[in-house]
């Protein structure tokens, strides 16, 4: 995905199961727990929280440059990654 620096649009495959009226995604909400983050960090191809933060900042920079793409031709809306991940909360709970 674009998050990893690839030229592919952000497309969370499980987004169809997300609420239609909320940008909250439980998988990302639970990343506030450092234990949960350590279990799923491989999804983002990172080794630790520091490398995740760097990768996320790089992702945000690409968005500002306008190189981010979204799939919009579905009957449900895929929220942008920056709307579902609160970088300030990740790993804050032991």
Which characteristics define this entry?
mainly alpha, 94 residues
Task: Give a structural overview.
With 94 residues, the chain is an all-alpha fold. 34% of the residues lie in helices and 0% in strands. It is globular and about 35 Å long. The protein starts with 25 loop residues before the first helix and ends in a 10-residue tail after the last helix.
Task: Please write out the topology.
Layout: H1 26-29, H2 34-40, H3 49-65, H4 81-84
Q: Outline of this structure?
A:
The protein is mainly α. It is built from 4 helices and no strands.
Q: Care to count the β-strands?
A: 0
Give the overall silhouette. Answer: globular
How much helicity do the residues have? 25-40%
Tally of DSSP helical segments = 4
């Amino acid at each position: 995905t674009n998050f990893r620096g690839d030229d592919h649009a952000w497309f969370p495959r499980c987004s169809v199961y997300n609420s239609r009226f909320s940008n909250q995604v439980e998988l990302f909400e639970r990343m506030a727990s450092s234990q949960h983050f350590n279990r799923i960090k491989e999804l983002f191809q990172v080794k630790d929280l520091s490398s995740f933060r760097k990768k996320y900042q790089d992702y945000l920079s690409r968005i500002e440059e306008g190189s981010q793409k979204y799939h919009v031709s579905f009957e449900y809306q895929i929220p942008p990654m920056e709307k579902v991940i609160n970088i300030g909360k990740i790993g804050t709970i032991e």
